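Working notes for the structural subgroup meeting. M.R. asked for a predicted model of this chain before we commit to crystallization trials. I am recording the input and output together here so anyone reviewing the notebook later can reproduce the run.

Input as submitted:
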Amino acid sequence: MADLTPTARELEALKFLWKHGRATVRTLYQALKPHGEELAYTTVLSLLQTMEQKGLVGREQAGKAHLYFARVPRERTYRQLAGSFLDRVFDGAMNEYVVRALESRPASLEELEELERMIAEAKRRAHASGKEGAHD
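Returned structure, recorded in token form:
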């Protein structure tokens, strides 16, 4: 099975494709180039070819150009990356993960209210599935 976990550079390309839909190598090259060190056009082409082999992007012919598009959903990718980070860095301790995230920068009132809504929904799901105290 293909590894659907994107590298940092692949994630940059996916973010652009999620936002813009389809893009040529040249368009992605121009979008990614300002974000850091020197970047060659052929590097972006190789990146997209690797991403296509991994199943992260697809490609279609549009005249002489090839248009690349994301094959993986944004939400699933973020969920997978967050879960992997949680396991790798915090050994699955969600409370520590959230505390450290909140300590890393000030949260807006809107963000805190959204977190409260998400926690309330997670509590409802845990009660419904009988998982109260499963991680105590």
